[in-house]
Amino acid sequence: MKIAILGTRGIPNKYGGFEQFAENLSTQLVQRGHRVIVYSPHFHDSNEPLYKGVEIIKINSPEKFLHGAANFVYDNRCIDNVMNQDIDIALVCGYASSVFSSKKMSKSKKPIFVVNVDGLEWARPKWSFITKKMIRWAEKRIAKSNIHLVTDHQIIKEYYHNTYKVDSSYISYGADVPINFDESALLKYNLNPQKYMLAISRIEPDNNIELIINGFLLSKTDNPLVIVGNCNTKFGKILTKKYASFNSIKFIGSVFEKPILDNLRYYSNIYFHGHSVGGTNPSLLEAMACGTYIVSHDNIYNRAIIESNGAFFKSPSNISQIINNPKAIEDQRSSFGELNIQKIKNEFSWKKIVDEYENLFFRLSNTQKAV
């Protein structure tokens, strides 16, 4: 089968969750004998035509001039390009910036388009009232377009069914349980095992980094809080400036090397997960896979994933109370970690996720799976 993946900032991952997803899905589909193309913007720092067997097609993106609005141009250029390729299935990650091509996507017989709708993008607090209205319009249009939709969380699947009376295929993100850990990875950051707390995310308001910081500062801990994420965003610059005088808060910037991230997670005393706007978040699954002690923002999406195998917060005082009760953390750490690891193996392994995408693509394209 010939498959293309669009709507990301390309692979190897240098940005976020969709890029990590595209990297894992594409490389594992290639290992199964499929031809896979991933589209990347022209400014991606890898100039190789292949990545682990995946073909890379670079498309010009006017981000330098249009900033965020460039995604509309870039995504639609990718769609126009893929329609001129010999492709069976085109998987589009996200819908907001590709919505103006929804009519041509819905009419296309080859490739057949599939859209992973992600979470409730319009609910993110960083958007203005007008932008939220536009994103909700895009959501409705893509839901009514007859394009096959993939939802990554059962609650998002129910939302699309209840709101638009449209069915979708539920396929989550994936994670694999690391085999080895090496505490020497901490030396670069001057950290000691079990002597720091950790948050990994894009530094945006809906990821509650500031709430986590404020809760941490209310606590009595002597351990530092390490924050991994791009500090050069508008909100990232605000936070780094605001908390620059606190030596216990370490903004270390973006880290994309998975072994380093896994070691940071595994050796942390507490892993804070602040994502709040819908869907299954890859960084939550990866924290579960490392068996770390997770303190998560309290919402229906996160609770559905980790169930009772973690602690939850809604306010800074919740966080400080958790930090100030180290005995409860130690009493729960081992059992919570083991249960979360087992859930990853049973429900979220990359093999399972790739199986589900592969089976969906075979079904939609009416092709037979090779025996």
Characterize the structure shown.
- 42% of the residues lie in helices and 16% in strands.
- The chain folds into 2 domains: 2-174 and 349-365, Rossmann fold (3-Layer(aba) Sandwich), CATH 3.40.50.2000; 183-348, Rossmann fold (3-Layer(aba) Sandwich), CATH 3.40.50.
- It has an 8-stranded mixed sheet, with helices on both faces.
- The protein is globular.
- With 371 residues, it is α/β, with parallel strands linked by helices.
List keywords for this structure.
14 helices, alpha/beta, 371 residues, 42% helix, Rossmann fold, 8-stranded mixed sheet, 6-stranded parallel sheet, globular
Question: How does the SSE layout of this entry go?
Answer:
Blueprint: E1 2-6, H1 17-31, E2 35-41, E3 50-51, E4 54-59, H2 63-66, H3 70-82, E5 89-93, H4 102-107, E6 112-116, H5 129-143, E7 148-151, H6 154-164, E8 169-170, E9 197-200, H7 209-218, E10 225-228, H8 234-242, E11 249-253, H9 258-266, E12 270-273, H10 282-289, E13 294-297, H11 300-306, E14 311-313, H12 316-323, H13 326-348, H14 350-365
Parallel strand pairs: 1-2, 1-5, 2-4, 5-6, 6-7, 7-8, 9-10, 9-12, 10-11, 12-13, 13-14
Antiparallel strand pairs: 3-4
Helix pairs in contact: 1-14, 7-12
